[in-house]
Amino acid sequence: MVINPHKLGVHKLLKNIPLNALFDAPAKARLRKAVNIADLRLCAKQRAHKMVFDYLDAGADDEISLRRGKDAYSELEMHFHILSGLKPPLDLSTKIFGQDVKLPFFGCPTAGNRMFHWEGETAAAKAAKHHGTLYGLSSLATTGITEIGKLTDGPKVFQLYVWKDRELVKDVLAKAKEGGFHAMALTVDFTWYGNRERDIRNDFSIPPKYSMNQVIEAIRKPAWTYDFLSHEPYSYACINKDVPADSLAAFVNSQISPEFDWKDAEWLLGEWNMPSAVKGVCRPDDAIKAVETGFTTMWVSNHGARQLETSPATIDVLPSIREAVGPDVEIILDGGVQRGTDICKAIALGADSVGVGKPYLYGLAAGGTDGVIKAYDILKTELDRAMGLLGTGTVDDLKKRGPGLIKRRHSSARDYPDRYAYERGYGGGVI
Predict the structure, then answer these.
(1) How much is the pLDDT for 425?
(2) What is the C-alpha R_g of the chain?
């Protein structure tokens, strides 16, 4: 048996020594000064363990898709109307999965939030409630379904992977219904674990392996380290909270069912019988098949560019998928979103709502609940401004008039940030 601080009960001792505020003071000061999502990224990088930050920040292989996902928005121009008679704040309300929300964007379901900050998924749930938007919970979450259900009675979607064990699937779906979740999203682009080379170089694992390099980095990041050492160890709370979290890659490889197909999807929909999304669509023909199978929502996604390298930028395939399924099928898009203008462009080109992953996780890693709320504040302000300047006063107006307002141009060197952009995270950052 490997001895580590949690097995020795160090967290039980440290939880009674309230040093969090002391260690977190510099992080809070940085968070207050953050102006945009790129700033939040730097705040997260300065607070979080390198292994944890790189897990959040990275893409697959050479990170080409990660860079392209962001760059694709730079190639879209916004051809605005003038004298539209609008004034701030605009009405940003809409519906997601048939539920009323105050914002047309939300935090995507993401695994293991407690590795970024001790508040974990509870911070994201509180931020969603604060802003009146959808909350998404991953089936690899480190906070349980029941706990999230108690935190917010707002609209919620439960994300599910293609597990081998059907009894496990039935169990988590039953818990999701009991917890007040309104929709289910089946992630279908995760049948193999992506090649995330930053994780390999960092010897990434949950929990840490306490190698010399990991210990040295922990000393450099005292706020994150004290959080980790003074709270209970992580577990996959939606699956079995009594089983400690192991290596994420090993766990996924043992539980994921690569052979999961459309027949299995039909079975799953029969078990759920509520609004459902297929998450990971990037082809029109797959979208049509998903509608025929019974999914109510198409979720255009490439898993944050963390799976198949050189998969297309989601904003590039969005118009073709909207054309394929028609105007009445709900479409959610995620991938590459760093600005409110990106959200505006996605809705204009066919998305009903937009999921963000890295932006709110940067906020979480930078400052817990306050950080996630700030990430939403930034995107909300930017979206409100973009829609107002574009001349669209509501989300419905943006959807109706959007295709005529967004035009693609050939890219040039002037489209992209200056030579210091990599330091700010543009294009996914560099090692």
Answers:
(1) 58
(2) 21
Dist CA 291 CA 296 (whole Å): 7
Q: What pLDDT does residue 428 have? A: 40
What is the C-alpha to C-alpha distance for residues 357 and 143, in angstroms, rounded to an integer? 17
Distance in angstroms (rounded) separating the CA atoms of residues 333 and 356: 9
Query: What percent helix, strand, coil does the chain show, rounded to 5?
Result: 50, 10, 40
Which residue in the list 49, 182, 231, 303 is annotated as catalytic?
Answer: 303
Concerning whether 11 is annotated as a catalytic residue, the answer is: no
Q: How far apart are the first and last CA of the chain?
A: 33
180 φψ region: left (φ > 0), alpha (ψ -120 to 50), beta (else): left
Instruction: Provide the pLDDT for residue 19.
Output: 84
Residues 6+ apart with CB under 8 A from 7: 1
Please report where in the chains the tokens 């050479």 appear, as a residue: 62
Spans of the chain below 50 pLDDT: 427-431
DSSP 8-state code for residue 185: E
> To which residue do tokens 């400052």 refer?
367
In angstroms, the CA 221 to CA 56 distance is: 16
Structure tokens at 176: 């999701």
Residue-by-residue DSSP string for 207-224: S----HHHHHHHHH-HHH
pLDDT at 242: 52
